[in-house]
Amino acid sequence: MDYSISIGIETYGNLNKTLYAENDAIRFDNIMKNVFNVKESILLIGNEASYMNTQNKYNKCIEKLTEDDRLFFFFAGHGKNYFGSPYISSWDSNNDDIGKTWHNLVEFLSQFNESSCKRAIFLIDACESTINFGLRNGEINEFSPTDISHLTNVEYTYVFSSASHKEKASVNEETKHGIWSTFLFEALEGNNPKALVNKRLTNISMQNFLSVNVEEYCKTQGHKQKSFTWGICQREFLISDYSIKNDLDSKEIKTSIKEMYFGIIDADNELKNDRVKFEKNFYNLNDVAESIQNDKNIQLVLGKKGTGKTYIGKYIEEINKDQVTYINFEKFNYTSFNALKDAKAIGYERYQLVWEWVLLSFVVELLSSNENNIELKELYEEIFYGKMTLDKVLNKRLKKGVSISEKYKNYIKKTSNVFSIDDLVELYKVLLERSQIQDFSYLILDGLDEKINEATNYKEILNSLLWTVKHLNDVFYENELDFKIVIFLRNDVYEMISGANLGKIHFGSTKTLTWINDSINKYDYPLADFIQKRINNFIIGKGGQPSELALANILPEKVKEMDSWEWLLNFTTYKPRDIIAFFNSARELCKNNEKRMTEQILRDATKDYSKYLKQEFEDELYGFLNDEQKLDVFNNILPKMKMNWVNFVTIRGYINQTEHCTQSVIDNSELINLLYSVGVIGTMSSENFENWSYRGKRTKLNPNEIPLLKYKVHQGLWKVLSIW
């Protein structure tokens, strides 16, 4: 298996800025994932690449490598040759203490050579990035034999560097990459035959390609820079074999669309269906999985329904089985929880102690599996009599207290062995301070938005949870416990929860999931990368090669004179599950061994997909509207709007004609705002500016502007509402 580490630093804490280094690292990381299909990729950008974090990531990566694996290490940023050894910078490097704030590349190589792994390629686009002895540059007079067996089973720790020990590495303003990196990416993508011999990329063919092209380009720019290689290798070795025909690039794939796997819209079911596919298809949006694991401030992950929160939580648990407990509160008994509250307190403070008890019980369960935490293990087994469950945690007997061993009295200076909830919480904290944690561990809380309409005092309970998590994470940090609790929550539910100073939790400790960016080209959206990764993984599984055009190659060029991908997105709310649902609907219509979807197939797919989207909207409105009100919305209000833009007076009239929405506790403007925030309707201003909540940063409407706007039903609903 291949693994990769990609580092790019442009803005430093103490050093001058570098150009396009982060572009380089992101491009390399994409190549590793999409072309080399690495098992795991680590991307460190800007201040993520601090000295300690880089070292820790590198250490953890090489610890897990086996002799059958291979490591790719890419760096773009400042480099420095110090007493003959090349050093690469970190975000917090300074020139006054090079030995302790810069990474010695030779030491990185030595550390790797002590691991079980036998193959590593280091690719360094930095100034002075070559060791000052045994320099090897220019073209190498050896060529790859046709027998591939000669190129495999070779051990190597090899470095490709962009400049000598005294040269500066420069950039290509046209490509917005380093000069050397520009040609490196061409070689690694396998798209330039000049980098290949017999359609294979080897260390020798790649160095020849880099050496010739970097030098020739630099001559045109009046700059001197040469590509070098150094390190250890027995002989020429294979980097990648492109001899397999790239089926997607030639727009011919070996299998039909009907056979393709696009995914299952539910993360739990996708994981149960195939764990290997689940891990391979995971798309690390904005590196949120890495951020959760590396940034101790990240305590809250927000996203609309269907943006992948559960997928991220399950993925983190799957790859860190002994360090993560993922808790789904979908079936949480809020009634039992409410019964354990502190009746003497007021507001959300009534639930803080109960939340501490619940959450610390899961923390203790996770840490008690460590054989060194004997005290925690004994206490855990005594309280829960074996396996802990949510029912046991919320047992009403806790209200009166539970009897446990006499020995625990001394820990918190009690005279009785009957422990109340607050006694147990205090005992937990004392024992946690004495515990050992081998690796940073996490609780991930999900499914908290499933019972909005059912749970009494839901707002106060969730408000209390947010503050309790903040408090416990502070306790862990102050006691130097490598532990963190993270909450996954819907945006609208978070906004609904009221409470003093909630904004302080949001500031600096929240990740928000969004699947679009500012690019005009919608193929640049993370959504396109998400589905393209799945298509490429399927093709790879069938013996083909991945392609940057994988998505475009299975779609028709146009639908109604519009780019087909852009047309398709208009039927979605820009969420991964919408994309999967649409492609699954289209796949079912491919019955003639189609290798490419047609315009008619996409148009016909909207019928089945529209039913899915209506159900999604109904689920998202759960807790805000009752069943009768939802029937009014989908059966009486929206169909009357048809496919037109209607003004406020018109939509208000449709609302007032209903039986249940007029009796609602929310007024017309609030209902319109709710439908807009979910994505059921969009708006148009007097300047003809069209806006949808899921396309931009405006998730809510200003009440003052609501009477001035026009409104339209989401295009994805037209079929199911019989208005198209």
Strand content: 5-15%
**What value does the average pLDDT take?**
87
Regions with little confidence, pLDDT below 50 for 5+ residues: 133-150, 245-253
What gap, in angstroms, lies between the N and C termini? 50 Å
Main sheet record: 7 strands, mixed
CATH domain class name of the largest domain: Alpha Beta
Alpha-beta content class: alpha/beta
Number of domains: 3
Cα-based radius of gyration, to the nearest Å:
29 Å
The total of helices stands at 27
Find the CATH topology of the largest domain: Rossmann fold
Estimate the global geometry from the Cα principal axes: globular
Number of strands: 27
Outline:
The protein has 724 residues and is an alpha/beta fold.
List keywords for this structure.
five-stranded parallel beta sheet; Rossmann fold; 27 helices; 724 residues; 39% helix; seven-stranded mixed beta sheet; single chain; 27 strands; alpha/beta
